[in-house]
C-alpha cells in the first residue's frame, strides 16, 4: 500500500456505503504516514459537500486515521479547549489521489471536559435500512462505538493529554 509522506498535502475523501462521494477536505498536511496510521493537520481548509456546496473549516484541526479501527477522530483546537468529532467509519485506504474512508453516519462529539454525546442514531438507522448495511457491519460499528467510549474515558490515543497539542506543534512546523 502506498503511504502518504510527512509534510506533503493530501486530500481526504469521505464516501457513503453505496459508493457515492459524501464530502471532500481539500488540503490536509500529513504529520505522520504509515500503512496503519495517518495523522494530519489542517486549518481553514475548503470542504466540498456531495451536493457541490463548499465551506471552510473555522479552526485548526488534527485528524487521526487508523487502518484497523472503524472510526476516525478530529481534534479541533478552539479558544475554550479541544473539541473532538469522531466519525464511525471504515478503516482508511490511501492512494495517490487521497485518503479515503466510508462514513457510517454515527458520530461522537467530545467536549473539552471529556463529556461526550452520541449523534445521528436516526440517520444511521435510516441509512442502514436504505443502503442495506450488512449485519456484520452493524455489529462492527456498535463494538467500535464502545471502543471509542473506552478510549475517551481512558484518555487513550488522540484523547490523551497533550496529544493534539504536540501534533499541532508539528503542523505549525510544516507551515513555515
From TrEMBL:
Top-level taxon of origin: Bacteria
Catalytic activity: a ribonucleoside 5'-diphosphate + H2O = a ribonucleoside 5'-phosphate + phosphate + H(+); a ribonucleoside 5'-triphosphate + H2O = a ribonucleoside 5'-diphosphate + phosphate + H(+)
Entries under Gene3D superfamilies matching the protein: FomD-like
UniProt keyword Cell inner membrane present: no
Classification via InterPro entries: DUF402, FomD-like_sf, Ntdp-like, SA1684
Pfam families: DUF402
Annotated positions binding Mg(2+) 2: 105, 107, 120, 123
Residues that bind Mg(2+) 1: 87, 103, 107
This enzyme's EC code(s): 3.6.1.15, 3.6.1.6
DUF402 domain location: 19-156
Cofactor: Mg(2+)
Keyword annotations: Hydrolase, Magnesium, Metal-binding
Job of this protein: Has nucleoside phosphatase activity towards nucleoside triphosphates and nucleoside diphosphates.
Protein name (database record): Nucleoside triphosphate/diphosphate phosphatase
Species this protein is from: Bacillus oleivorans
Taxonomic lineage: Bacteria, Bacillati, Bacillota, Bacilli, Bacillales
Amino acid at each position: 500500500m502506498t503511504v502518504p509522506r510527512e509534510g506533503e498535502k493530501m486530500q481526504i475523501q469521505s464516501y457513503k456505503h453505496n459508493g457515492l462521494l459524501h464530502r471532500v477536505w481539500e488540503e490536509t498536511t500529513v504529520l505522520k504516514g504509515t500503512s496503519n496510521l495517518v495523522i494530519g493537520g489542517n486549518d481553514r481548509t475548503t470542504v466540498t459537500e456531495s451536493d457541490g456546496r463548499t465551506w471552510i473549516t473555522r479552526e485548526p484541526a488534527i485528524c487521526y486515521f487508523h487502518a484497523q479501527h472503524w472510526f476516525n477522530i478530529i481534534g479541533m483546537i478552539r479558544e475554550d479547549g479541544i473539541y473532538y468529532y469522531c466519525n464511525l467509519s471504515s478503516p482508511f485506504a490511501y492512494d495517490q489521489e487521497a485518503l479515503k474512508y466510508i462514513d457510517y453516519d454515527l458520530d461522537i462529539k467530545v467536549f473539552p471536559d471529556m463529556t461526550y454525546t452520541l449523534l445521528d442514531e436516526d440517520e444511521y438507522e435510516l441509512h442502514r435500512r436504505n443502503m442495506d448495511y450488512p449485519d456484520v457491519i452493524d455489529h462492527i460499528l456498535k463494538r467500535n462505538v464502545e471502543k471509542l467510549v473506552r478510549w475517551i474515558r481512558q484518555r487513550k490515543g488522540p484523547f490523551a493529554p497533550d496529544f493534539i497539542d504536540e501534533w499541532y506543534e508539528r503542523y505549525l512546523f510544516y507551515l513555515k
